[in-house]
């Protein structure tokens, strides 16, 4: 063990050990109390894999919210993410065919649907999904 010095004088081995123990204890306590801020990367999953991470809070996603007051025929691709709180984010519709028309208010309304993490998703892993939706 290396001897510590205080004001140019060597400390006794006993005092030297006590100072090292206190230093290690303080260092250990500060690392325990430090918040763990590890941001999770969004994992892209298929529609069939989504159920391994999240389930819809009300049972089934209600796509009709996007096309209220319309005769629903056509198909589209929906791209969206589910954050660690089970909220839909970054909702985008592409490849829209047929007579389907939507707007920002309807996208916002659709995004209010929420998800519950599965037991296997104890870390609330955020995911992104691309789903092809066919409405008849």
Automatic annotation (TrEMBL):
Record has Membrane as a keyword: yes
Residues passing through the membrane, by range: 12-34
Keywords: Membrane, Transmembrane, Transmembrane helix
Keyword Transmembrane helix: yes
Protein name: Lipoprotein
């Amino acid at each position: 063990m290396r001897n510590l010095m205080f004001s140019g004088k060597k400390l006794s081995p006993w005092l030297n050990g006590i100072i090292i123990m206190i230093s290690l204890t303080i260092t250990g306590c500060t690392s325990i109390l430090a918040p763990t801020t590890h941001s999770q990367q969004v994992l892209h999953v298929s529609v069939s894999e989504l159920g391994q991470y999240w389930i819809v809070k009300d049972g089934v996603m209600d796509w009709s919210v996007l096309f209220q007051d319309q005769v629903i025929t056509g198909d589209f691709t929906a791209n969206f993410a589910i954050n660690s709180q089970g909220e839909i984010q970054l909702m985008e519709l592409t490849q829209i065919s047929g007579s389907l028309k939507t707007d920002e208010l309807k996208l916002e309304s659709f995004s209010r649907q929420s998800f519950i993490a599965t037991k296997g998703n104890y870390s609330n892993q955020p995911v992104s999904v691309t789903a092809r939706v066919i409405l008849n």
